[in-house]
Amino acid sequence: MTPDFFSRVMRLLTCFFAFCAMASMLRAEPTHGIAMYGDPALPPDFVSLPYANPDAPKGGRLVTGNVGSFDSLNPFVQKGTPPWQLRFLTHESLMGRSWEEPFTLYGLLAESVETGPNREWVEFTLRPEARFSDGSPVTVEDVIWSYETLGTQGHGRYRSFLQKVEKIEATGPRSVRLSFNTDDRELALIAGLRPILKKAQWEGKDFAEATINDVPLGSAPYVVTGFEAGRYVLLKRNPDYWGTALPLRKGTANFDEIRIEFYGDDTVLKEAFKAKQISYVRELNAEKWATQYDFPAVSAGEITLSEIPHAKPSGMTGFVMNTRRAPLDDWRVRDALIHAFNFEFINDALTGGRQDRIASYFSGSELAMRPGPAKGRVLEVLEPFSESLLPGAIEGYTLPQSDGSKRNRKNIRKAADLLADAGWTVQDGQLRNADGAPLELTVLLRQDGLLQQASAYMEIYARALERLGITLTIETTDSAQYTEREQSFDFDLTFFRRSLSLSPGNEQRFYWGSEAADVAGSRNLMGMTSPAADALIDTMLAAETPEEFTAAVRALDRVLISGRYVIPIHEYSIGRIAHLSELTYPKEQLPVYGDGVWFLPEVWWFEADKK
Fold first, then answer.
1. Are 322 and 496 in contact (CB under 8 A)?
2. Dist. CA 58–CA 55, nearest whole Å
3. For the purposes of burial, counting CB atoms within 10 Å of the CB of 21, is it exposed (0-12), middle (13-18) or buried (19 or more)?
4. Tens-digit pLDDT profile for residues 288-312
5. CA nearest 546: which of 8, 37, 12, 9?
6. In angstroms, rounded to a whole number, what is the distance separating the alpha carbons of residues 46 and 249?
7. Overall average pLDDT of the 449-458 stretch
């Protein structure tokens, strides 16, 4: 990471917190873009996104690998398990995001956006040339139908938005206005990011019960042209794609074909990559990156190893505890389980100690809570909830550390004390409560899921819990069964990953809000119902000064980490991509958000002369 990269990050963060003056907030005319705070960084006549190469050649084939299976090609409904890439590659929204700014959108299907003085409404004007992949125009009727259908029949991630919309109305042949019933500046941007589907395709059909053959029509550059259930999906770039000349699309969607192959486990996928049967892999384990990527194709220059820095908050990665179930509803039990997790020893064993532990949900960023007791405005917003907050929220909280030895004696003793306080004592070598019931937990894992070494983590952890008299069973299941059980919260512990942005907003309600706690399919996997967290999210969304916004997020960070909902593991401070050397990307300016689907495959391209 170069000094230029960090200085650019700091400039962007400075811009993010430099709120626009009231005069600029009173928008009277449509504009080409909209930022959460301040004005868009790119002018109306921008040529391309700053991290895209507008002269990138088109062509070539990209093959990516997924572990598991799929039984749906509709990523917008609750039913089934679709390839996760589809909603990014095959469908578009009214606005598109620049990943070089904290949260700024520019016109995509819409040519302009206009808001009320306090963003109590937002109006979009469609581009006359916008088309679905079948050549039919994108209409206001399609837009309204998409908002209403996704908000009532779509996946849980889309439903809460519609509840905040007072009305949706056509204001012209190409314009639509959404008026909100909630004071929330972010809603105008969320509206711009909702996927737009074709209404006529679903006439006489049940959208929520779509079969695998009911592939939703989109307007994006890629179209599903073939598939074999559970084995592969083939996408091809639409030669008649309507938006090729848009600045937002210049230098993006460069591959003629993208094929998604499915593998039974990660080991087979990695072997396929070594044989160059797939085009790239993302490596999450720093130890493996350092020691296992010296195979012949790398030595021969046929495969390149690229590292992509970013400036995002750490987010949270680890093992989440389901507080809907006893005894995990007792914070002392959760605290004991965190103490028993010997991160320093496990990290050294599995990653060579190369990856630091996550310290909090927003660690590594300006939004992270500060060490020690809460002070100033952070303390002020926390104090009304002092009686319901868990220890550490106000006083300061740090994760327990071990001495790195296998025994972890100090933390095991602390865990035993916490369990005793919660009514659990060792009886005949097993931890039992007052009724004599044993403390037995099951960790649910997806077969070779995102964290490849998740089972290894849990196997070491299970041995530690045995010393406390706790039985931990590791249950590994296939992708379809895992998704079903995760969505119905049928687990004690499971692997957990939440990426967080430099502009946290309404998604926080879906992640940790009380209203989402018991909604099937919600992302509040821990089932937390915290009045403090709910209020802090409200404060964050209504903030009118940078100080208020930052204080609310830092306070929320304290509530989350002191809630002891997740056993944190290591952070992903850099993206690691091993790829065929024919694949390349703009190296001069990387997006501040680093690697993601917006980076690979979005702005990469194929160079045949590198073969």
1. no
2. 9
3. exposed
4. 899 999 999 999 999 999 999 998 9
5. 37
6. 11
7. 74
pLDDT number for residue 12: 53
Vertex 321 angle, CA 316 and 324, to 5° = 130
Beta strands in 389-530 (DSSP E): 425-427, 430-432, 440-446, 471-477, 493-498
Torsion of CA 68, 70, 71, 77, to 10 degrees: 120
Residues 6+ apart with CB under 8 A from 395: 373
pTM recorded for the entire structure:
0.79
Please, which residues have CB within 8 angstroms of residue 244's CB and are 6 or more apart in sequence? Answer: 221
Contact call for residues 67 and 478 (beta carbons, < 8 A): no
What stretch of H or E contains 66?
A: strand 61-67
pLDDT averaged over the chain? 92
Half-sphere exposure of 21 (CA within 13 A, CB side): 2
CA–CA gap between residue 138 and residue 198 (Å, rounded): 7
| Cα-to-chain-centroid distance, residue 420 | 37
Quick check: 598 and 89 in contact, CB under 8 A? no
Amino acid at position 204, single letter: G
CA-nearest of 434, 410, 419, 405 to 469 is: 419
Quick: pLDDT tens for 120-135: 999 999 999 999 999 9
Q: What b/e sequence results for 276-307 when a residue is b if at least 16 CB atoms lie within 10 Å of its CB, and e otherwise? A: eebbbbbbbbbbbbeeebeeebeeeeebbebe
